[in-house]
Amino acid sequence: MRAQPKASHFINGEYVEDTAGAIIECVYPATGEVIARLHSATPAIVEKAIASAKAAQKDWAKMSPTARGRILYRASQIIRERNRELSELETLDTGKPIQETIVADSTSGADALEFFGGVAPAALNGEQIPLGGDWAYTKRVPLGIVLGIGAWNYPQQIACWKAAPALIAGNAFIFKPSEVTPLGALKIAEIMIEAGLPKGLFNVVQGDRDAGPLLVNHPDIAKVSLTGSVPTGRKVAGAAAGQLKHVTMELGGKSPMIVFDDADVESAISGAMLGNFYSAGQVCSNGTRVFVQKGIKEQFLSRLKTRTEAIRMGEPLDEATQMGPLVNRSQREKVLSYIEKGKAEGATLLTGGGIPNDVASEGCFVQPTVFADVTDDMTIAREEIFGPVMCVLDFDHEDEVIARANATEFGLAGGVFTSDMARAHRVVDALEAGTVWINTYNLCPVEIPFGGVKQSGFGRENSLAALNHYTELKTVYVAMGKCEAPY
Ligand code: NAD
Predict the structure, then answer these.
(1) How many angstroms does the Cα of residue 309 sit away from the middle of ligand 1?
(2) Rounded to the nearest whole angstrom, what is the distance from the C-alpha of residue 152 to the centroid of ligand 1?
(3) CA distance 379 to 391
(4) b/e for 407-436, b at 16 or more Cβ within 10 A?
């Protein structure tokens, strides 16, 4: 098997196996080939990971933030040096084209390690608070052991986005990748050790949705940071609340992208395609409801159809391939069933709508698909599909489109395309979303906060704002005179 790791888990600086755990089969989504076979964590593996994290965390927290940062920075350099190897593994694990993984996965993880390693030490300072003689100060202290749980769309990036702020703040980190894409995080763990991270601070524990609760419910886990769907978020946040644990929830979306008549149409089409077809549509912040003002509808749809039909699908390891398969068969079946619902409920199928003819029959490919004349009540306009399915809806007026854009339980992201900057900012203010892009879509450099509102979650990843979610404040009151009491 061409991507078989030495063992399933990475604990205390080394690969560890326990064959008593349920088998996790890793399949290359483009061909159906089994590329690795791993085991889900047993309770013994979970205990081992937690014991090693606990043993390592106290000394790590005592190191200077700059010394911690130096290790994170070194890890970012090694990731960049091995970008090709890591990207090929990410492509095998997820099916995403190498054209994408080479620029958007391990490199984005390296960006986070570099950013938090470089600037965060200065942001971990506390405050001095004068009280007129007496005074107080605050310290930012780590939480202890942070558990990261990943989705399958950006496995290496998610591992690094969560690990970097957790580690720089002095926490130990345990990562449970999605059982669908378990391979990349093991390589990141190896690199962290090579960069000088003390053993036990970055452990990887594999597990399916039965093993996840073993970690979430463990009393030694202080915080859970989940990237996943809304139903999983409810379960994990509920379990964490039972023990009053900190949580960050990066969940799903059904984000609106609003294109006004005065927008640069080609640029808006680029935004809509990026926000629906990148990673075969498996991106949480995708602008899957594209509201197009009626004056440009025909021009928009005609160019969108032409450009969508020119997308090159195929073998993801081929650098010319622009779109790969979905992550597995069950995701493909789910997406195809949404396409059938779209047709049945009366949306106009502009292009795509099925399995392409010219790709490997064992692969999980779905054509890039565009529905026009979609209305707000259709299933495809309300539920997260997580595949390459774009819904185009018409609108007349600004107030109308804002109300319709916000009429969803989700609030992850949004976009507006217009040449009128006053309108752009007015619409941004009115949209209920954690991140909104003006005249572009889905750009997430690590310098900016990322996260959702409403049912899309809470907490923020990246930027200095993330540090608030991986530390807590300790307040110290300093009396300068005697302690007086009325007794
Ligand atoms: P999922 O919810 O099925 O699984 C996410 C992770 O949670 C997996 O590792 C899974 O094993 C684990 N899990 C499931 N049940 C659990 C439980 N009871 N306790 C502990 N862990 C449990 O999500 P997915 O299908 O892997 O990913 C797709 C979803 O993730 C989409 O909804 C997408 O929008 C969302 N997502 C969100 C973001 C974001 O940043 N907001 C990013 C990527 C993906």
Answers:
(1) 31
(2) 7
(3) 11
(4) ebebbbbbbbbbeeeeebeebeebbbbbbb
Q: What is the pLDDT of residue 437?
A: 98
The per-residue pLDDT of the chain, averaged, comes to 97
pLDDT at 121: 80
Q: Ligand 1: residues within 6 Å at CB?
A: 149-153, 176, 178-179, 208-209, 212-213, 216, 227-229, 232, 235-236, 250-253, 284, 384, 386, 412, 452, 457
Residue 290 has what pLDDT?
Answer: 99
Average pLDDT on 226-239 reads 97
Atom 13, ligand 1: residue with shortest CA distance: 209
- Per-residue pLDDT reduced to its tens digit, 134-180: 999 999 999 999 999 999 999 999 999 999 999 999 999 999 999 99
384 pLDDT above the threshold of 90: yes
Q: Which two tokens stand for residue 69?
A: 């940062």
> What is the CA(231)–ligand 1 centre distance, in A?
9
For 338-365, what is each residue's pLDDT tens digit? Answer: 999 999 999 999 999 999 987 777 899 9
Active-site residue set = 162, 250, 284, 461
